[in-house]
Amino acid sequence: MESRQPAVRRGAAGPDVARRDRRDPEVAVTAAPGLLGIRGLLASWALAAAAFGGFSLLLPVVPWAIAQAGGSDTLAGSVTTVFMATTVLTQLAMPKLMRARGHRQLLIAGCLLLGLPSLGLLASTAPPVVLGISAVRGIGFGMITVAAAALVAELTPARQLGRATGALGIAIAASQMIGLPLGLFLAERFSTAPVFVLGALVPTLGLVAAARLPRVRPAAGATHGRPPLLALLLPTVAIGAGAIAYGGLTSLLQIAAVGLPVPIALATLSASTLVGRFGAGSLADRIGAGRLLPIGLALAAIAMVPFALVADDRAGAPALIGAAACFGLGFGIVQNEALLVAFRRAGPSHIGSASAAWNIGFDAGAGIGAFLLGALATAAGYPAAFAIAAVLVPVLPLLARLAGPSDPKPRPIESNP
């Protein structure tokens, strides 16, 4: 189903604006339209919201169902780990696939692979079945995560990229804010069956948005040489460190904090992530990408301490909700700052590689976090697992910063190459 719309270049406000943006950034500042005036951008946000809505519905429910059936914490965490493993393997191939097949075809395939296999969970929740379905769904999720972020970067003029990625974060966080608690509510109040049906239906609704996406050509002068992998180390590890804690929380918090309002905490986490991500994006358009990254990492790390206290029965619902708000705000900042730093360091020739690196860091971190913190919880308890995560969140990016190349002074995004 090929789009009949003409192909567009990066900065999809139109070819005239895109050419002025490349020659004279100051002209582009006044000529660029608002975000909603950029063709295809709203559709890309809607598709991402549908995909992440289906993803978040099942994210805490499938491990919970395994635990309810008598499975170990390690097995419950393995469900997310398998999902993220196939996600990451798919993401590794996405830069080449996007050049060969285009963003829209991959987004359509991703919606189908993420959604439809969820219906198989209605037949069985035996571990082999659940792990197999999770593997297939992970392939679809890997396609969507990389292609959606790369498409936003291709469509948006450089000066507005911080707000555009922040708005993408709003779409994702809003759908997660609904999906995470809704899935748990339906599973606990009724059964897992309606959750599995919604997990299939919601991502397939993204096909409606996919039909509105334009075809995109790479920016003029773009090359496909080797991407700057070492330069992408810091943003990849930064998002991965935050995702380790996030993956553990979303998969295991319902088990660790029995009797407490975990669905409300997860909704709070998603809402504050929305605020952090869009706020960081708006500031980045003015002060430059990267300045807020240490602050975001610090907030996420600090929040893990009250989570540990809650898991140790030394704090209650107020601490749980407060920790969720603090972690979400910090993690939202980390998400947007790491993505913008990746785009800046990669340059316009390697937008796909930057998106892939960021998403690999996020999803590998979430998968590792679900498995690692689950294993640590089995061995030493949830308080120890969350306390270790509090250390990993700031330390891993610091090590990456020391190992990688020096980063130039943060600058407004429109002045980036």
Q: What can you tell me about this protein's structure?
A:
It is a single chain. The protein is mostly helical and 417 residues long. The chain has one domain (36-216, 227-409): MFS general substrate transporter like domains (Growth Hormone, Chain: A), CATH 1.20.1250.20. Helices cover 74% and strands 0% of the residues. It is built from 16 helices and no strands. Helix 3 runs parallel beside helix 6 (103-115). The longest helix is centred in the last third of the chain and has 30 residues, at 317-346. The chain is globular and about 50 Å long.
Give a nutshell description of this structure:
The protein has 417 residues and is an all-alpha fold.
- The whole-number mean of residue pLDDT values reads 83
Low-confidence stretches: 1-31, 409-417
- For the record, the CATH class is Mainly Alpha
Kindly name the structural category: mainly alpha
Distance between the termini: 35 Å
State the fourth-level CATH superfamily: MFS general substrate transporter like domains
Number of helices: 16
Stated plainly, the CATH topology is called: Growth Hormone, Chain: A
Number of domains: 1
Gyration radius (Cα, Å) is 20 Å
The share of residues in helices is over 70%
Number of strands: 0
Shape: globular
Order of helices and strands: HHHHHHHHHHHHHHHH
Which CATH architecture is right? Answer: Up-down Bundle
Largest pleated sheet: none
